[in-house]
Amino acid sequence: MNSRSLAVVLAAGQGTRMRSRLPKVMHPVGGLPMISHVLNAVERAGIGRTALVVGREAPWAEGARGNASLHVQSEPRGTAHAVLAAKAAFDEGIDSVIVLFGDNPLIEAETIDSVLARVHGGADIAILAFETDAPTGYGRVLLDDNGHVAAIREERDASEAERAVRLCNSGIMAIRAGEPLAALDTIEANNSKAEFYLTDLVEIGHARGFNIVWQRAPHAEVMGVNDRAQLAEAEAEFQRRARAKALQGATLLAPETVFFSHDTVIGEDVTIEPNVVFGPGVVVDDGVTIRAFSHIEGAVISPGAVVGPYARLRPGTSIGPKVRIGNFVEVKNSALATGAKVNHLSYVGDANVGAGANIGAGTITCNYDGKKKFRTDIGEGAFIGSNSALVAPVAIGDRAYVGTGSVITEDVPADALAIARGRQVNKPDRSPAKPDVPHAEEGGDHAEGEDGAGSEADVRGTSP
After folding, report:
1. pTM of the predicted model as reported, rounded to 2 decimal places
2. Burial, 396: exposed, middle or buried (Cβ in 10 Å; 0-12, 13-18, 19+)?
């Protein structure tokens, strides 16, 4: 239905109130730039073409625009001036234009579609409005005696009676192609700021007998972001929505402490304990438990896995079915197959861990030599004893056993026992804690440890 519509997204504002070197529309909500939220909503609404209007210096736009054509507003002279900056995108192939704003990150595709539907149903202009008990700062939607939209008055130009109106303009407007769209060229800068206001199109249209309609939207959905406080409000609303969506099939023990990203996917029968943060790129499958104080980004977690508490999963991580990732464990760019366990105080980076393998407490895959990254392969059913360092590139074979405290620099064959550490040497009556034993002096007796296998106790690792 919207394939012949054009979305004009205005993103030329300087955003000085953000007090940031980052352009306003590039500030993230739910881990995604605000402008991307708007462009994604346009795409979901099935709009055929999109024009993005930016200021003269907007290097960010090339990477953010997606499929939108790019148009430059030469100088900031108001919203109507900005829309006309995209006039090259107006052609006979469109039947309607909808004007949106790059700092409205919470706008829904369904709302965009419903506003356009009013124009497709016969209206010349359709505006999106909201009601609030605190209208200060917003343009007011003024209705005539028949309840039809007569004008939109910016607050600085409004009378005292007009400022008392609580019906406010969101800025979002759909315009039928033809005479209504052509009327943009007749807008004059006859206001206190000497700018060309898009809202003046309503009063012009009312005088010409245009069919102008309005519909109500929740204030939260159409809120604009102009400063850091409003950015925080937008983030809070985004998280409220995300939590409500997650609660349709998952259990959140303390929903207000769980934070989602724009693309987080949560399956059914998932349990999420308090104080969990999801960064971008996370998929949590059915039956997973995420324990408290875990941070997860760029990871896929398969059914039945348990992660945390105090776990960190970094980008490129794949957690297989029934895997256990325990407290103070960090995993990065690694795949753990079914039933593998990393239960305590370990770092697994750039590694493949086979099904049923057990990684003991304090294990580190030494994957970085200061210049390059290298991989570690740990076979099925392998056992890595506590406090071991696996110096990549290295492979631990299926069912191999690495003794506690080992530094492994060479491949370990399947079913082999590997021990790489100095043998313990006890010196009777030489403890510095003993009152009559002086501290060792230079040149004293310092026995060197010997490499080699010890007793059965020497190779013990932590239990699964």
Report:
1. 0.89
2. buried
